[in-house]
Amino acid sequence: MNTDQLRELLPVTRDLIYMNTGWAGPTTTQVLRRIAETLEQESAVGPASAKGVAIGREANNEARVAVASMLNAAEVDVTLTHSTREGVNVVLYGMDWKPGDELLICDLEHPALTSPANVLAQRMGVKVNSVAIPALSQQSEILNLVKSALNKRTKIVALSHIQYTCGLRMPIKEISSMAHEMGIPVLVDGAQSFGQIDVNVDDLGCDFYALSGQKWLMGPVGTGALYVHPERRNMIEPLFSTNALEASHDTTERRPLARFGLVSQSPGLAAGFSESIRIASEIGIGNIEQHAMSLADLLRERIAATVGCNILSPTLPESACGLVTVGLDGWPPEELVTTLQERFGIVGRTVQGPDGIRFSTHFFNTPSEVEKVRDTLEQLAIEKYKPA
Ligand SMILES: Cc1ncc(COP(=O)(O)O)c(C=O)c1O
Asked: Ligand 1 centre and the CA of 379: distance in Å?
């Protein structure tokens, strides 16, 4: 599938320059159809009839197998969730914390990680060690900063694979091996990486990987998954127990991670999740990454040459990705986002730390869209912001 073919499946691309996949990707007509068909089939046979239950089971299994294959993980090591946050919470609240234990995060993290960290600090006396990592850090600097923050009280390292504010890629593989030398497990927030770049949990060596379907994968909202390394299964207890079997530690059970699921999955959404993985696999994650990166490079290059525009994202290939954060002199980011959307049909979002507007470049975006964004930013830099 090429970019034009993917755009055909995305009606939004006819009306808008949609560069906000990092928040939520548009859903293809194929995924929408798969969701509707599954729900119709389930309803036609009765959702709680033997056939209806089988449809639900099959949809969930198909999604779990598809996620596992995309992560290069064994199927039993993946459980479905409804979001990245859910996976992060299952791990962080499932651990046995003692006052004074340390949780290592960094100051670029999304509230998906900082909120549970703050709650653990308040409720359990956990010390949250938030390492300050400049958005434009080199990979070696990140490693040194993380290394100097690790100590014998560190109970887990929890970091995003790609930072949402600026698109900084984190050296997760190296961080995992450094942490493991001290016996410390690593939890990765994969919200911005799954579907954008190749994620191989075996190669990364991380212990937990939380992800969602609605961003770079362009799947439905309310889908996600959590990978748990088999040796870490017993490190966490279920947040809530659903029934006796699921709360048990019986590792002979066919699905050892089932005990971490609290809320039932919608078969329609699970089927849509699988379909979005199928489409991403058909395009090829390598092609998605390469396309996203080349458009982001083009945007960075054009912005750097535009008076009044500033690039706030990393530019080195090993640290950059398809998220580009930009500042425009004199323009408050919120006003810029609104103006771009209302007057020019360009969709981005504001971020803080660094403060700016973030554009996401996906496989369905084009070089001419990037040029239009640049031209518009130049025009707005010349017009200057005029408060109402
Ligand atoms: C790094 C990061 N983590 C977590 C999330 C939240 O994802 P979800 O809504 O799937 O929990 C986001 C959403 O923007 C994110 O960028």
From this structure: 32
